[in-house]
């Protein structure tokens, strides 16, 4: 009898060696949980009294629920839950181990690559996924690839360039194109006709002087044609949409001169193609596809300084994640004619607010230049639920990568080492 003693905790080995034990009472103590393996070896135990303890019925007690199903016991003798509220007052014998979700997905550090990178964009070619990394300080674009023998990633330089701000990969037929947007020396499209290890060659000069200071690149297929959008961040520059003409990209449309555009995002609104263009000086502008061109439709109010916009779809709705370096980040939902705010997140110092899917789980990651980056789980209505924090200095992109049945997250860093995390499942039950 170990009862009425205000016992608040008990060691896993406290009952070891008592192989002939028939009756055990831990009643009327202060036990919120019991350690896994406490009753190991007690094959003769026929009566257990756990009444009067303030049990917290969570994953730490899931093992006990399974064990109780193997021994004769009355519901009252097994005790009741004191917390949490969904189980308060419920006898332990009435709970099912399956009532508890005791697995949690999280990101664990896997590898640090010894170089900084401004951008990271994924692509799939020949059934294999890759990531193109822009390295402005090294003057190069690199393709991240998995080394099967070493069990690690490596990123050899594949294109030498001048201060690339974006290395946008584009599989086309059996070839891989890389759009290299540069601050100096003009922007170029490079082509690789063979598989990994083949040489990239210059294929086309992009823009022919139209692009003064490219900042972001995106592509989309519209009406059977491939389009390339480039945001120009120079004061006198103009963002441009190019169309693939069979052998190269050629200017299709010059967007409204907003000056200092920082990002553009292709998406679909109400079944029609659309484009969101962000500027550090004005409110984001939403274009709708009409007559083969993008026409201004509306702006997004109350956010005059959005750095970038990333979209995701959930339950038939379209959402935007808006990044603001000086203000709160915003989650917006398309309401038929305009975007409306549904949540804001403190984000001073952030330049990336990225929705993505890892291992079947949906997340939104908020990078920060002066604090830890935050990982949010995407709730059923588009609301964000914080899960963990990541130590990534000056992040600029988050990209999911799958290798076999393993899932990774590549986090580019503007001033530090490029980080790779592995997405794993952790068992919370004791």
Automatic annotation (TrEMBL):
Domain of life, source organism: Eukaryota
Gene3D superfamilies in the record: Ribonuclease Inhibitor
Annotated localization: Secreted
Keyword Plastid: no
Keywords: Glycoprotein, Leucine-rich repeat, Repeat, Secreted, Signal
GO CC list: extracellular space
SMART domains, sorted: LRR_TYP, LRRCT
PROSITE patterns, alphabetized: EAR
Major location category of this protein: secreted
One example of a Gene Ontology biological process annotation: myelination in peripheral nervous system
Nucleotide-binding recorded as keyword: no
Residues of the LRRCT domain: 53-103
Record's protein name: LGI1 protein
Gene designation: Lgi1_1
């Amino acid at each position: 009898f170990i009862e009425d003693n205000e016992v608040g905790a008990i060691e896993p080995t406290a009952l070891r060696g008592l192989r002939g034990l028939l009756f055990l009472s831990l009643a009327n103590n202060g036990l919120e949980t019991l350690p896994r393996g406490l009753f190991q070896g007690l094959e003769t135990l026929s009566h257990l009294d756990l009444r009067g303890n303030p049990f917290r019925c969570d994953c730490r007690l899931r093992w006990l629920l399974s064990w109780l199903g193997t021994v004769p016991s009355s519901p009252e003798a097994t005790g009741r839950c004191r917390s949490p509220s969904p189980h308060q007052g419920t006898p332990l014998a009435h709970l099912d181990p399956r009532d508890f979700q005791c697995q949690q997905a999280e990101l664990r550090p896997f590898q640090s690559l010894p170089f900084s990178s401004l951008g990271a964009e994924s692509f799939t070619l020949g059934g294999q996924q890759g990531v193109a990394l822009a390295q402005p300080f090294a003057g190069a674009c690199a393709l991240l690839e998995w080394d099967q023998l070493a069990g690690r990633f490596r990123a050899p330089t594949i294109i030498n360039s001048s201060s690339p701000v974006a290395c946008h990969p584009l599989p086309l037929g059996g070839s891989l194109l890389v759009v290299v947007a540069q601050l100096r020396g003009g922007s170029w499209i490079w082509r690789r006709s063979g598989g990994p290890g083949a040489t990239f060659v210059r294929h086309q000069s992009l823009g022919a002087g139209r692009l003064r200071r490219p900042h972001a690149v995106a592509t989309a297929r519209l009406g059977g044609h491939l389009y390339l959008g480039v945001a120009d961040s120079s004061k006198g520059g103009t963002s441009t949409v190019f169309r693939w003409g069979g052998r190269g990209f050629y200017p299709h449309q010059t967007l409204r001169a907003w000056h200092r555009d920082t990002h553009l995002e292709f998406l679909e609104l109400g079944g029609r193609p659309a484009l969101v263009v962000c500027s550090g000086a004005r409110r984001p502008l939403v274009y709708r596809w009409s007559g083969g061109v993008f026409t201004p439709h509306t702006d997004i109010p109350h956010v005059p300084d959005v750095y970038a916009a990333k979209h995701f779809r959930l339950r038939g709705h379209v959402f935007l994640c808006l990044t603001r370096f000086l203000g709160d980040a915003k989650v917006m939902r398309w309401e038929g004619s305009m975007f409306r705010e549904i949540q804001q997140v403190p984000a001073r110092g952030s330049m990336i607010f990225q929705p993505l899917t890892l291992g079947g789980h949906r997340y939104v990651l908020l990078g920060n230049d002066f604090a830890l980056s935050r990982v949010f789980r995407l709730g059923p209505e588009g609301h964000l639920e914080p899960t963990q924090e990541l130590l990534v200095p000056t992040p600029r992109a988050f990209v999911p990568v799958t290798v076999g049945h393993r899932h990774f997250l590549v986090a580019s860093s503007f001033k530090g080492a490029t980080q790779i995390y592995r997405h794993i499942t952790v068992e919370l039950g004791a």
